[in-house]
Specification:
The chain is α/β, with parallel strands linked by helices. It has 13 helices and 13 strands. The chain folds into two domains: 120 residues, Aspartate Aminotransferase, domain 1; 221 residues, Type I PLP-dependent aspartate aminotransferase-like (Major domain) (Aspartate Aminotransferase, domain 2), CATH 3.40.640.10. It has a seven-stranded mixed beta sheet with strand order 2-8-7-6-5-3-4, sandwiched between helices. Strand 6, helix 8 and strand 7 form a beta-alpha-beta unit. The longest helix is centred in the last third of the chain and has 23 residues. The protein is globular and about 60 Å long. It starts with 8 loop residues before the first helix and ends with a helix.
Amino acid sequence: MADKPTLKPWIEAIHAYVPGKSKTSDGRPLVKLSANENPLGCSPAVHKALAGEHQPNFYPDPDATALRQAIGAVHGIDPARIVCGTGSGELLHCAVQAFAGPGDEVVFPRYSFSLYPLLVWKVGAEVVPAEDSDYAADVDKLLAAVTERTRVVLLDNPNNPIGTWLPRAEVERLHAGLPRDVLLVVDQAYAEFLEEGEDDGGFDLAARYDNVLVTRTFSKAFGIAGERVGWATGAPHLVDALNRLRGAFNVTASGQKAALAALGDRDFVRRSRDANSSIRARFVEQVEALGNHGLRALPSKANFVFVVFEGALSATTALDAISEAGYAVRHLPSQDLPQALRITVGTQEQMDAIATVLRQLCEASA
């Protein structure tokens, strides 16, 4: 008999999620461009809402009724087909937990949100990473990875950490190629950064089919990452499954207030998208100008740029120099990406400063 509680073997194998750094190893604070937070902050309406009357002794609305109604009005979705969560991460976990377990497989692109394998391991299922095409998700390779044991396919679109995006036709082709008993989860955490008219069709698929779930978050373009609010939509039986598994009173009262206020300020989201687009484009140009030194910026539809170091300058050396200049960016050797950095799009001044560091390093290594 064991002398203490024994972890399930698949839980014991898990390494806890590691967030982006905000300090140097000796404790100096850094400008945090490692967590894809909004450099514009959040809408003034959010500050106003959170400064209003608040009664923390009462539980929040357990069903986030007003928030679901507001989300439904914005996106033309029946609120009964919406469920809110503690960030989209809780809902992604519930989706995997509801449909996969020991002996099952969960497929996702090789380079995807680092939370995905943790979600799979938590339920004792097997992680199946589909091969990439120059780091990006590839529909044919995703479908080739599906077997009779596959229960869930996770697709972050736009992708994190790469930033690439599959258009509507490709997402539809992916769905059409899946068995109907396989759940397709389209994780649209960065969808608000897409240009006007760009749409991967996830909402349409979720409205028409019984095996499609779409998740979104208020952490990125809306700028309220600290309030931890996300939502999902899909067929009634999928929403019911998530409601069975999510935490009771999972979205705090302040989170619901903040999300309602953020949702009502569409101008702030547009300004966030437009600023991100222009600053990102300039930074990509600056990186591409260093192409003869082996630097490459992959196409991004999100609020970060994935920079690959394929020459004499290594990602580790660049990471250290950027840190010395006062900035934290994301190095991802744990995702088999030691040769790259994911750099959140900050202000123009911040991105110019990082570009200057990269240029000086390249010149010194020439």
